[in-house]
Specification:
Structural class: mainly alpha
Radius of gyration: 23 Å
CATH class of the largest domain: Mainly Alpha
Shape: elongated
Largest sheet: none
Order of helices and strands: HHHHHHHHHHHH
């Protein structure tokens, strides 16, 4: 990621201890160095999130942090220090979030890099997913936004409600209801029997209809939670 390269090239020599001070109020070039160190530290601790650091994790880290050869030694030393534990990663995330709070696309780039490291061995563990979710929360991503980023890297689960209904996550509520009604009508057990499905298989049709209803209810509930969470509070009288 060239943006990350530009950031830590400007301040690679300033890599500090694992727990970094706040960057607000510091000169620009020092702030860049602290942010660079925070990026490296966050990636290193991502590699440690499942309890161990594998060769695949280190190689993935190197692919994400495309440093110049002059910076490799400094980055390697800081990486080795930071990867000893996952403690303190929230502080790194806060430094990065403050630096790029007006540029969410950059924060998403960072999330992409962390997912790349987590997937280095082909699977994301429960511990790694918790790490990713916590970092995303610090970055200010909503549950829905995190899910979109996750799907881009991991694909959809077989029980994903949007996959079951065959719709995209950004579909409007009105179009969602239409899609649900079309699918419910097309897959109702009585309709399938009328199309020639043997009555012995109506149990399967009933199960499919239950899955469709469950998917629609899950999406509606998720959207209601999201709307409630982001609804502006009324001013106090």
């Amino acid at each position: 990621m060239s943006l990350w390269h530009d950031i830590y090239s400007a301040g690679a020599r300033l890599f500090g201890p694992p727990i970094l001070p706040d960057t607000d109020g510091l000169p620009g070039h020092i702030q860049d160095g602290r942010v660079a160190a925070a990026l490296v530290g966050l990636g290193a601790k991502m590699a440690k999130a499942d309890g161990q650091v594998r060769v695949e994790d280190i190689e993935a880290f190197k692919r994400v942090f495309q440093s110049s050869e002059n910076n490799d030694a400094g980055i390697a030393r800081f990486f080795d220090l930071a990867r000893q534990t996952t403690l303190g990663y929230e502080r790194y995330a806060k430094i990065i979030a403050r630096k790029f709070r007006a540029r969410p696309a950059v924060l998403e780039d960072v999330m992409d890099g962390l997912f790349h490291i987590a997937l280095a061995d082909g699977v994301i563990t429960t511990e790694e997913m918790a790490y990713l979710m916590n970092v995303a929360e610090v970055f200010g991503f909503s549950e829905r936004e995190f899910k979109r980023i996750q799907i881009a890297h991991c694909g959809r689960a077989s029980d994903d409600p949007y996959l079951i209904l065959g719709v995209d996550e950004d579909i409007s509520d009105t179009d969602l209801k239409r899609a649900y009604r079309r699918m419910a009508a097309a897959n109702h057990p009585d309709r399938l029997v009328s199309r020639g499905l043997p009555r012995e298989l109506t149990k399967l049709a009933t199960h499919k209809m239950a899955m469709i209803n469950k998917a629609y209810d899950e999406i509606r509930a998720e959207r209601e939670r999201y709307a409630a969470k982001n609804r502006p509070s009324l001013p106090k009288v």
